[in-house]
Amino acid sequence: MKNIDPIRLEVLKNRFASLTEEMGAALMRTAFSPNIKERRDFSCALFDREGEMVAQAAHIPVHLGSMPLSVAAALGRADLAPGDMVLLNDPYRGGTHLPDVTLVTPVFFGEERPAFYLANRAHHADVGGMTAGSLPLSTEIFQEGLRIPPVKIVRGGKIDRELLAMVLANVRTPVEREGDLTAQIAANRTGERRLREIVEGCGLEETEGYCRALLDYGARMMEEVVAAIPDGSYAFEDLLDDDGAGLENIPVRCTVTIRGKEAVVDFSKCAPQVPGCLNAVRAITLSAVFYVFRLLAPEEVPGNAGCMRPIGVRTKPGTVADCTFPAAVAGGNVETSQRLVDVLLGALAQALPERIPAASCGSMNNLTVGGAAPGGELFAYYETVAGGAGGGPAGEGASGIQTHMTNTLNTPVEALEHAYPLRVRRYALRVGSGGPGRHRGGDGVTKEIELLAPARITLIGERRRTAPYGLQGGGPGRKGRNCLIRDGRERKLPGKCSIDVRAGDRLRVETPGGGGWGVRED
Questions:
Q1: pLDDT digits (tens, 9 = 90+) for 40-57
Q2: How many CB atoms lie within 10 A of CB 178?
Q3: Chain mean pLDDT for the chain
């Protein structure tokens, strides 16, 4: 399309982004689970007819960079028709880990094939598997829950009740799951209405032309970002604590090569895939790269597929950064993703020492709790606990915040205690846990929860053995710590464990602080 009007381009860029934000608002307001309604563990995006991401809401980085592969999986279905919606969560067919359930809606405008796709991804608090919350210390994908290939959950505008019944029969909390799934359907329908309003006002040809222009604009802006990085190759290595199945000190390696306006990010020398659940599929690695380079870009750069055109990503199948079936992946999405970001930032810090901050918390500090409430009703709860952000050239790191690949809120104490047999005994900043330096790292948090009914707890956390690194002479952040308190006695827990607890037991999670940046000038 010729004669692109820059003012109209800016208007449509914001209309597309607004569309995805409204999808998110509909999902949040209609969902049943605190994880989606309160923590907002979901993401929404708009894709063109080729499956390229045109616009995204400011939601979860690990979702948004990987969602294009879910849309590609939906594109693989040749039988899509108006009113259809495709459901999937299979990490080996476009997903990330099983609790992240994606819904893709093709949008037709009088043609045989869809002109656009709308997608949302939401983290469900349980999708079956060997432990409540579906984040087990697994050793193969089959232990992690119900694996859904791309299937039509909605056909011609009507929910497939038989398929829905099959899904709900495999989860511990079917009422909550049905509520969240129908909220996802409502979100995509909201997005479709807004998209049709745009096309009705502009026409299909013009709307698609400006979508292509937005992708080209994103590519040009990212080329300028890459060109501002000095040419050269920069390497960095860090460790994952363990895989939850006995293997410790797992290397994650990255080399970034800059040549003019092009970058190549190489994760092919990462450790081989592990027996435990910290394997990441390639989609997660792509998400980490997309996220980090977006950090380097000015705010006005649109977050779309064009941003990745100047950036190549190399992985090696069979490694923790590109695992192969049937490797366990429950923790790869939440923990390995964070270390991929840490090593990529560590490499870029050599090229841009005055721009890159020290390591942040480096863990989502995942907690799942499941059991039966005093009335006998099954429950499953999931949350990530905030940590400290790394100090950087601009100042100290933020305290008690979700960092990097997670962008969720916390679950308010009132909502948590209302919905589950849990009581929050302490929730405070872990003062002094940020690393020292000219600009200190942010502090982690201490969260202590009392169980009011017997339950099973699963923890998947990192940075319990290896501390978040400091940069430019700054010190490391303090490592995290977990413990169980029973009858007044504390018992230290490993970073990854699954244990049965009694009513009256307390779990305390102390999250890592961020690394410090620069040498203190005392």
A1: 889 999 999 999 999 998
A2: 17
A3: 95
Distances (CA, A) of 92 to 110, 140, 408, 486: 33, 13, 25, 41
Q: Any residues with CB less than 8 A from the CB of 205 and at least 6 apart, and which? A: 1
CA distance 189 to 192: 5
Please compute the mean of the pLDDT values over residues 55-83 and round it to a whole number: 82
Contacts of residue 90, defined as CB under 8 A and 6 or more positions apart, other chains included, come to 73, 98, 147, 148, 149, 150
- CA atoms of 338 and 248, how far apart (whole Å): 17
* CA dist list (Å): 96 to 145, 403, 460: 13, 19, 16
* Tokens coding 32: 């049943």
**pTM for the full model?**
0.95
Q: Judging by beta carbons within 10 Å of its beta carbon (0-12, 13-18, 19+), is residue 492 exposed, middle or buried?
A: exposed
In sequence order, which residues have a C-beta less than 8 Å from that of residue 15 and are 6 or more positions away? 198
189 phi and psi angles, rounded to 5 deg: -65, -35
Q: Which helix (H) or strand (E) covers residue 223, if one does? A: helix 204-227
Residue 76: predicted pLDDT:
83
Predicted local distance difference test score (pLDDT) of residue 1: 61
Q: What angle do CA 370, 376, 382 make, to 5 degrees?
A: 20
- Assigned token pair, 34: 């605190």
Angle, CA of 83, 155 and 189, to the nearest 5°? 40
β-pair type (311-314, 262-266): parallel
Which residues lie closer than 8 Å to 501 by C-beta, 6 or more apart?
Answer: 451, 454, 455, 456, 457, 484, 507
Q: Is the peptide bond before 326 cis (omega within 30 degrees of 0)?
A: yes
Res. 59 pLDDT band, cuts 50 70 90? low
